From TrEMBL:
It comes from Caldithrix abyssi. Coiled coil: none annotated. The keyword Transport does not apply. Residues 166-282 form the Carbohydrate kinase PfkB domain. Belongs to the carbohydrate kinase PfkB family. GO terms for molecular function: kinase activity. This is Carbohydrate kinase family protein. Keywords: Kinase, Transferase. SUPFAM superfamilies: Ribokinase-like. The keyword Cytoplasm does not apply. It holds the Pfam family PfkB. The lineage of its organism: Bacteria, Pseudomonadati, Calditrichota, Calditrichia, Calditrichales. PANTHER family: CARBOHYDRATE KINASE PFKB DOMAIN-CONTAINING PROTEIN (PTHR43085:SF57), HEXOKINASE FAMILY MEMBER (PTHR43085).
Length: 303
């Protein structure tokens, strides 16, 4: 199994609810490490992103001896890497600042994703790729594409503060994906222009069946299987055998856990349950979980 991941690596400064502060690399690394923990030794993770020259060597050192992670899609660029400061007011409420943004990836820079079995497009910055690039990927790629809406719903002020705003052409983004993930606030924002969520499903999911995952943090998740014949829903309870101490990256881990589980089983309900477990275990670490430790903890807690 070969999974491509498109997104943005960031330098995180996290001010957590307990008052502690952590500094680490993050962003797309949460997806990479969660995939690394969920996949077998015969599988491959292929990240695609630009990386600032100030952290490029550090990122390469993290994975250069890991045969599962293919680093050929990492593109060094001059200047500072994207930096993100996150201030948590509670586990679910936070303020986010995006500093030193990097340019979006072009289709030529990511076209090697077409050689993979599945693709995750994680819109960490919101401009990781343009919609036209997403459409080209969809046109030429027959396999499953998973989209985390994430920062498509965020604008950026001059001081870097991110704020919720209705995303442009969101139905076109969703039409390009087979699996779509968003949190509760993002879902409410996107569907507010429709009389009901059902109208949103009709507008954005009429061309082919889709799985929509809504993540609720400490309340678990709800997954929808949407096709022209109707909508099926599945509520997945939060995984409670471990304490979440740092929710950063839990959504990224959820997406990784869901996609791997779904590719293996083709059971969307089972995949959602696995995704909640992977997300919770990822949140048991402060800062970016190391892949081996995350994998060991997942195996220890395997039901």
């Amino acid at each position: 199994m070969k999974i491509a991941v498109i997104g943005t690596i960031v330098r995180d400064v996290l001010e957590l609810p307990d008052g502690s502060v952590t500094h680490s690399l993050g962003g797309l690394l949460y997806t990479i490490n969660a995939l690394r923990a969920c996949l077998d030794e015969s599988d491959t993770v292929c990240p695609f992103c630009t990386v600032g020259e100030d952290v490029y060597s550090q990122v390469i050192r993290m994975y250069r001896n890991d045969p599962i992670v293919d680093l050929s899609g990492l593109i060094p660029v001059p200047g500072q890497n994207n930096r993100v400061r996150v201030v948590y007011h509670s586990r679910e409420d936070r303020s986010e600042y995006s500093l030193s943004p990097l340019p979006p990836l072009s289709f030529d820079q990511v076209k090697a994703v077409l050689e993979c079995d599945a693709i995750i497009v994680n819109m960490i910055s919101g401009w990781d790729i343009h919609l036209e690039t997403m459409k080209k990927i969809r046109k030429h790629f027959p396999g499953p594409i998973a989209l985390d809406v994430h920062s498509l719903t965020l604008g950026r002020k001059e001081n870097g503060l991110r704020y919720l705003r209705y995303p442009d052409r969101i139905t076109e983004w969703i039409e390009c994906a087979d699996i779509v993930q968003m949190n509760e606030a993002e879902f409410k924002l996107i569907t507010e222009k429709y009389p009901s969520p059902e109208f949103f499903w009709t507008a954005s999911c009429f061309k082919q069946p889709k799985i929509i995952n809504l993540t609720f943090g400490s309340r678990g998740s709800r997954s929808y299987l949407v096709d022209p014949e109707g909508v099926l829903a599945h509520d997945s309870a939060p995984y409670q055998r471990i304490e979440v101490v740092d929710p950063t990256g839990c959504g990224d881990a959820f997406m990784a856990g869901f996609l791997v589980g779904y590719l293996r089983s083709r059971d969307w309900k089972q995949a959602a349950d696995q995704a909640n477990r992977v997300a919770a275990v990822s949140g048991a670490f402060k800062g970016l979980p190391e892949p081996r430790g995350l994998k060991e903890k997942l195996e220890e807690l395997h039901d």
